[in-house]
Amino acid sequence: MTSDITRNGAAAAPRPFAVVTGASSGIGLHLAKELALRGYDLLVNAENDLILEAGDALRAGDVAVETVQADLATRTGVEELLSAVRGRPVDVLCLNAGVANAGPFVTTSLEDDLALIELNVTAPVHLAKRLLPAMVERGEGKVLVTASIAGVMPGPWYATYAASKSFVLSWAEAVRYELRDTGVTVTALMPGATDTDFFDRAGMEDTMVADMKKDQPEDVARDGIEALLDGQDHVVAHSLRNKIQVAASKGMPEPAKARMHAMMTKERD
């Protein structure tokens, strides 16, 4: 990565460096855009070739952008992304890539559910395990983990997805506590229904939640980056509805939470 040169010929300090996964569209793309606006050079990843178009769009400014098309549901894909870091100090790590599988657990594909766990759970742990130690050694760095308000309650009809978001939310909060005296912070981003291709990709087009008024991904991403840079432990983004839903769930028994969630996620007859 080249450094900027000042007028007197001295090398300026390099720009901060951020890694963003799941950055080809939706929340991930807008996380990358928010960081670019704040002067971060970027390494962005997704498994599809839309990441190449996203990279071109992000390069519209003067930041340096590198794209890695790799499937983080595989260990090979994770290692490919890690190799692209090339030992550069990571100032911000956004663990955003994720997927959902809709339908009754007994009928969803085993291969799809295991791939979901690899992408939503194993990949963030793998990446953080490899990149966090250097942050701790430097005494600085920020991590954003995209969880979900789905992670605060059982999620019938996409059970593995909701469970994966429960895992990453708990994991992010726990690691944050462990790192409280290191200068490294971990922030959990908790979106609700957002206007992305999530519902189409998950096969949830014919559900109540798919028809709900949705937050815009740029608003969710802005909330997330502001909370990240502020060092907050979590942020429920963006609408008041999401905040009310999370608050209401705290006093409910688990079966009631599951029943409420199922009304939104069950495919219509």
Structure, explained:
The protein is α/β, with parallel strands linked by helices and 269 residues long. The protein has a single domain, classed as 3-Layer(aba) Sandwich (Rossmann fold). Helices cover 47% and strands 13% of the residues. A 7-stranded parallel β-sheet has the order 3-2-1-4-5-6-7, sandwiched between helices. Helix 4 (110-138) links the parallel strand 4 (92-95) and strand 5. It is globular and about 60 Å long.
Number of domains: 1
Fourth CATH level, the homologous superfamily: NAD(P)-binding Rossmann-like Domain
* Tally of strands: 7
**Low-confidence regions:** 1-10
**CATH class group:** Alpha Beta
Helical stretch count? 10
Give the percentage of residues in beta strands.
5-15%
Following the backbone from N to C, one meets helices and strands in this order, namely: EHEHEHEHEHEHHHEHH
Looking at the structure, what is the overall shape? globular
Oligomeric state, counting identical vs distinct chains? single chain
Straight-line N-to-C gap: 55 Å
Report strand order across the widest sheet. 3-2-1-4-5-6-7
CATH architecture: 3-Layer(aba) Sandwich
Mean model confidence by pLDDT: 91
Properties at a glance:
Rossmann fold, 7 strands, about 270 residues, about 45% helix, alpha/beta
In brief:
The chain has 269 residues and is of the alpha/beta class. It contains 10 helices and 7 strands.
Write the layout of secondary structure elements.
Layout lengths: L16 E4 L5 H12 L3 E6 L3 H9 L6 E5 L5 H11 L6 E4 L14 H29 L2 E6 L12 H20 L5 E7 L7 H5 L5 H4 L5 H14 L3 E3 L3 H10 L4 H12 L4
Parallel strand pairs: 1-2, 1-4, 2-3, 4-5, 5-6, 6-7
Helix pairs in contact: 1-8, 4-5
